[in-house]
Design brief:
Order of helices and strands: HHHEEHEEEHHEHEEHH
GO molecular function: DNA binding; DNA-directed DNA polymerase activity; iron-sulfur cluster binding; metal ion binding; nucleotide binding
CATH topology of one domain: Topoisomerase I, Chain A, domain 4
Number of helices: 9
InterPro entries: DNA-dir_DNA_pol_B_CS, DNA-dir_DNA_pol_B_multi_dom, DNA/RNA_pol_sf, DNA_pol_B_thumb, DNA_pol_palm_dom_sf, PolZ_Rev3
CATH architecture of one domain: Orthogonal Bundle
Distance between the termini: 56 Å
Shape: globular
Pfam family, one: DNA_pol_B
Strand order of the largest sheet: 3-4-5
Strand content: 5-15%
Cofactor: [4Fe-4S] cluster
Number of strands: 8
Helix content: 40-55%
Family: Belongs to the DNA polymerase type-B family.
Length: about 325
């Protein structure tokens, strides 16, 4: 059963590569391959569950984890023990490897990657299979499950695709200004390899923010509301704070559970708790005396994600 699920998922992913121009079909195929992945994961999860599971057998769950780790470590050893590839594994997690091939061109990287995939597949019993998914040039590997780079999926691909996982450009817990500034900065450094250009661009955006010339929509956070009973007593959560204020004037104004509540941080007197500076975007539009808190956005929202990326290149964004 699992073999059929995995084979079907591979077939769907190959179809996605063939029909890149059809956006609607891409969305359908992506949903299908994700559904198949979740079915396979749930099958493994059922075996690891205790009395509440449909088919509990913790020994199977433990052996899956153990054999997966063993297979991964054997693949890492094989890559590092083959001198003709000149490759070094920089990161390996669960079922994937990031392999660095210093001094090699993109074409050579694809060739070495294909050889590694074939060698690891032959080194394991069927149906274990390693496949070359993509080549990044360049790439910043931040931490576990957080990386960004220019992605190439085939040797004849001329224009790279900006691909990010786990960093602020693809996360929804920040504001759009962070995603835009970080993505533009990364594209600049990938294309020019000149951090001074990034510094110039970032300082320009800081100036615009301090002068109030940035689009207000880019400063809006949106966090999920869990309902009045979904928070511990005394919790300082912006969505909850706004809901309490709205309920004081209209009992029907409470957001629905799991609804994303938009808010901005405004200026206030020194020493005032941050939760007291939370306002609805509509309040900001209605009251001319309110201004976005530029210092908060620069120092607490924009600089930390930039620093996490560019500190790896030796730059101190805080000093900018």
């Amino acid at each position: 059963m699992l073999q059929e699920i995995l084979d079907t998922r591979l077939m769907v992913k190959q179809s996605m590569k063939r029909h890149k121009s059809n956006k609607a079909l891409q969305r359908v195929l992506h949903s299908r391959q994700l559904g198949l992945k979740l079915i396979a994961n749930v099958t493994y999860g059922y075996t690891a569950a205790n009395f509440s599971g449909r088919m509990p057998c913790s020994e199977i769950g433990d052996s899956v984890v153990s054999k997966a780790r063993e297979t991964l470590e054997r693949a890492i050893h094989l890559v590092e023990a083959t001198p003709r590839w000149g490759a070094h594994v920089v990161y390996g997690d669960t079922d994937s490897l990031f392999v660095l091939v210093p001094g090699k061109s993109r074409e050579q990287a694809f060739k070495i990657g294909a050889e590694i995939a074939e060698a690891v597949t032959l080194d394991n019993p069927k149906p274990v299979k390693l496949k070359l998914e993509k080549v990044y040039q360049p790439c910043i590997l931040q931490t576990k499950k957080r990386y960004v780079g220019y992605m190439y999926e085939s040797p004849d691909q001329e224009k790279p695709v900006y691909d990010a996982k786990g960093i602020e450009t693809v996360r929804r817990d920040g504001c759009p200004a962070v995603a835009k500034i970080l993505e533009k900065s990364l594209r600049l450094v990938f294309e020019t390899k000149d951090v001074s250009l990034v510094k110039s661009y970032v300082c320009q955006q800081f100036t615009k923010l301090l002068q109030g010339r940035i689009n207000m929509q880019d400063l809006i956070f949106a966090r999920e509301y869990r309902g009045m009973s979904g928070y511990r007593p005394g919790a300082c959560v912006p969505a909850l704070e706004l809901a309490r204020r709205w309920l004081q004037t209209d009992r029907r104004a409470e957001p629905r559970q799991r609804e994303r509540v938009p808010y901005v941080i405004v200026n206030g007197p020194p020493g005032l708790p941050l939760i007291r500076l939370v306002r609805s975007p509509l309040d900001l539009l209605a009251d001319p005396s309110l201004r976005p808190n530029a210092t908060y956005y620069i120092t607490r929202v924009i600089i930390p994600p930039l620093d996490r990326c560019f500190s790896l290149l030796g730059a101190e964004v805080e000093s900018w």
